[in-house]
Amino acid sequence: MFNAFFKARPRLRAALFGLAVCTPSLAVGVTAAFAQAPAAAAPFVSDRLSVQVVGAGPNVILIPGLGSSREVWRATADRLKAAHRVHLVQLAGFAGEPWTHGDGDFVQPEVDELARYIREAGLVRPAVIGHSLGGLSGLLLAQQHPDLVGRLMSVDSLPFYSVMFGPAVTAESARPFADRAAAMILGADAATFRAQQEGTARALSNTPAEQARILDWSMASDRRAFAAAMKDVMITDARAGLAAMTTPVTALHAGAEGGDLWAREYAALPGVKLIRVDDSRHFIMADQPQPFAALVDQFLAD
Prior knowledge:
Blueprint: H1 2-8, H2 10-17, E1 49-55, E2 59-63, H3 74-80, E3 85-91, H4 107-120, E4 127-131, H5 133-144, E5 151-155, H6 171-187, H7 190-204, H8 208-220, H9 223-235, E6 249-254, H10 259-265, E7 273-277, H11 284-287, H12 289-301
Parallel strand pairs: 2-3, 2-4, 4-5, 5-6, 6-7
Antiparallel strand pairs: 1-3
């Protein structure tokens, strides 16, 4: 079942594995407040993430995906900063950011730190935009701390990524494949890992310059963080919390392929806005920058 599903949906396979191993052997609305951080607030220190702040105005938090640098959001931040206070998150272990947690949990600890950052920075219900793993993190943040998130945009992100194996897959049944994916990431030699990442980068974006950045970020990431994040993503199922959510959510997905999957997996979320972006792969912000910018503007204006 898994082999057939992956052969039928190559883009979804690439989206699931983000920047991870991609080999045949592994068939695997409230307006944002204008709250500013207190002038005397101490710098936020965390071993799970760092945050760079630019601009002034309503607060917007940008979370990158698996293996990515905060630079994936630089064009968006540069465009928004004239009228918004933009918080660019960098997750630990990715794109050269230090990682000190071995093969331990990845997703929930960084969600906890995102919540702590919002509180300590004095942000009042900021807008959150997350790509891939960042979208899943934003969804969990809104489920667990509905008072902290004003609205959420997820970019090519599902509440449970392993559903791409098939509709009957559960977090528990996906665990062996998650373990195998992590082991392959850790076990590949440098040349093999680079070759795998080159192929995966081409599958994740139509844009050569973005493919090069994806590869660079991947190779600069800590493999232990990479593996821990991949395993966590594959066994994290946020679908049970969808029906009770009150945070407005906009979910973008790339191209026509898999639209039925996005509709089914987000069906329980009240009022969700599902938007397809054509002629794009997983990195929508790079492949379709102008339509993406217009969608972000509309999301922030609603």
